[in-house]
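re: ur question from yesterday

yeah so i grabbed the chain u mentioned. its 364 aa long if i counted rite. heres the sequnce exactly as i have it in my notes:
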Amino acid sequence: MNEKSALIAMSGGVDSAVAALMMKEAGYQCVGATMRLYELGDDDSPAEKTCCSLEDVEDARAVAFRLGIPFYVFNFKADFARQVMDRFVCAYEDGRTPNPCIDCNRFLKFDRMYRRAMELGLNYVVTGHYARIQQGENGRWQLLKGPDPQKDQSYVLYAMTQEQLAHTLFPLGHLRKEEVRAMAEQNGFVNAKKRDSQDICFVPDGDYATFIRNRTGKDYPEGDFVDTDGRILGRHRGIIHYTIGQRRGLGVSGGRPLYVKEIRPESNTVVLSDNDGLFTSRLVARDFNWVSIAEPTAPITVRARARYHHPEQPATVTVLPGGAVEVVFETPQRALTRGQSVVLYDGDLVLGGGVIDEVMGKCE
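ran it thru and got these structure tokens back, copy pasting raw so excuse formatting
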């Protein structure tokens, strides 16, 4: 295996294009590849806001041609359907709110793509993520934030293993977005001014409930909105229509603003409260991956992010029997949500992360 060889995951966007450029300029044997994950059903789908479109494939191919590197399209649709779309559906059916980008990174980019790189005899997988990897003094690989707080993507990468980190390169890790676009323009890339994808690729219109119904072929029955004391406030349209903290579209008038506080699939009820009722201070996360440090044997203080774009908050973390992790925030947090991920930081260092499974009340 050539040590300086890399499979470049090319999404069709400007970030992965510049990542490919930088690896070639660094003297690596580069092979470009785009993952075919999902077919948008209509020619008029708003592809400019998503990834995975045919336009994206052609943009990636054009950049690879300009760089003079081989280019392949890998059909990972079955893996994507099982590991991302089906998990997405199951989460909503269970009253959770998932983050499919985390699952895509975990099961596709750094699992299937990594295995394909090894099969091709390539030593690294390269992506355009804004994050950094370094090796600590004890030899453990560490994941760190990117330099631009607005573009840092370390939150969605917490599931990476030591083996994956050892064979992954993030050439954009020290750059800011404006620098990347300038490099793309200087090199005449077709996607230099292309917008970043914003929406979930398999739900480009944002209508999650319709997607879920179409995928499962099931109807999700109406049920009761109730308050925290169990009093019926009205009828909901089916639990897949709601997320924690939601206010719009409830169709309930309680004389005051009401928000979704809890979703109970076992009784098909949705609990509503005022805004104060959304604040909780403790959660338990499962499927936890300690990235940059070994699992701690005593409570540690961290800064925790419980949703992608939420600011980090000081918290105390304790590993529970069986490997689940309890996070207790110094101050109550709004709308902690089952199915989202909590990621722990020490400065720029990503300590680890897991999926929120339980949310508990305010500090007594």
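noticed a couple things. The CA atoms of residues 33 and 301 lie 41 Å apart. also The chain is about 25% helix and 30% strand.
anyway ttyl
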